[in-house]
Amino acid sequence: MSNKDRYFMQRAIDLSRKGMQSNEGGPFGAVVVKDGKIIAEGNNCVTSTNDPTAHAEVVAIRNACKKLNAFQLDGCTIYTSCEPCPMCLGAIYWARPEKLFYACSKQDAAEIGFDDAFIYKELNLAIPDRTLKTVQLMNKEGKEVFEEWATKTDKVKY
Amino acid sequence: MSNKDRYFMQRAIDLSRKGMQSNEGGPFGAVVVKDGKIIAEGNNCVTSTNDPTAHAEVVAIRNACKKLNAFQLDGCTIYTSCEPCPMCLGAIYWARPEKLFYACSKQDAAEIGFDDAFIYKELNLAIPDRTLKTVQLMNKEGKEVFEEWATKTDKVKY
Q: Which of residues 88-107 of B touch A (CB under 8 A)?
């Protein structure tokens, strides 16, 4: 671990504490680093902003992309105070940073009541076996739009 | 499939087409329904808003929660034009709606270049085996904040 790594992770942890103490949300913080500098920060704001997607990593990614005017985090590193939940890990894969550091594990999170494990497990179940009742309908109508996308000439891929 | 289900899914599909045609993002749309009425809508806006998390479901969930002044979608149903990616499915589990309908499958999405399958696969790998380089550090310092959360008396759980 380099001194820089320690510095950036300490900042993510400081954000996790600050957000918790000010009742913005759960005890989670994250920063996005590019070229040796923090370009964006985030902490969990789920309960204070009524946004279930406002996890620290998602907030930091949104802020970083806004700053970079880009929908990808090329050459960036994310430091997060806790191993990402499936939503955040999905968001990180879509944002495509170079590297990810985390401090607490998902087991640590489960111990204080954040049971990502349930969501990880559900994602792996076949649709009929999931707790969330999930039904497919109108596949034909939906696919017509996909076919338009396939032949669209001015699309921006992501 | 009821007439209402058909109506709501058609709206999600219409949003997927509209967003694509206006170059807001990929061909995906979603609506949130409560008490037999659409309370919020969304379509993919990743490339037009530089937000990699602005998938249709995430946008619709954020809008619905804002409308309900709540961080959960109690009693709501989500209609989405495509089976959710891991990020969106994670967001849906955190939002806790009652039911989910989808039109296109993730295989349909892969066929037009949206390979959620890669992300689903990565989520299941042990951390050292993932494509995204991921390293744990400062676990002790991170966990100190979790211990504060555990004993915090005025926390809002979610």
A: 88-105
